[in-house]
Amino acid sequence: DQIVFTYLHLAADEQQTKALIKSKSVDIAYETIEKDNGSLPLLLPMSEVAGRMATQEAAKYLEMPQGGMGVLLGGVTGVEPATVVVIGGGVVGINAAKMACGLGAKVYILDMNLERLAYLDDVMPANCFPVMSNAAVLRELVLKADVVIGAVLVAGAKAPKLLTKEMLKEMKKGSVIVDVAIDQGGCFETSKATTHDNPCYEVDGVIHYCVANMPGAVAKTSTLALTNATLPYAVEIANKGWKKAMQENKEIKRGANVIKGKVTYKAVAQAFDLDYSPVEEFL
To answer: Which of 25, 74, 188, 205 has a CA 20 to 30 Å removed from the CA of 19?
Structure first.
């Protein structure tokens, strides 16, 4: 059996999904390995890197030579700092917000979970304001934002489009939006995947940074962080074989996306209107 164990992000990639179905391989996605508490241990290290990079890149593209409005993220004495809006209070969001707060920006972090907002209120510094997310609040905040960072995740599924074209038209010219959710299709209506060689484009005067696989730019850090997390799972699959590993470890079983030509992850099947087969059928 050929086993593919890596980041797949199939819900945003129909071509790859159909190719894996055709190959009859066993395809286990890093991003859907899930613990009993709902955490995603193999997405965590890259989410940390991408969140921190999001603020770093936004600060750079706010500079006028890069096409931005010429605002320093943290301001200086007597001059207001930039306003950063982070959509999503998960691992990406909290890391993006930490970096922005550390640089001195005024940061709003939006989430729909009250418990998460309470946690963020406890752990984040005074220049970070956790806010309950809804369409009206989002529209209000993006209008005054210098930077918007999309850090939304629906595990294994396509990201929802939260920043609309209409909202974008009303944003400040020269502001920057960073879509970290681009690997799952993006959470801005105007997002399209870019590369590290050509990372940005402009729509309605707003700079879009939508690089897929952002952590690839800091490959040494990313490789060490990812290997620390993935190696125990890889060793277990190699030693036991995929079937026994899934039987004995629910986290690995939850990671199964495609097995022997059948889609075994519900969100992927729903994304492309494909038949869904529970993984238990193969065990």
So the answer is: 188
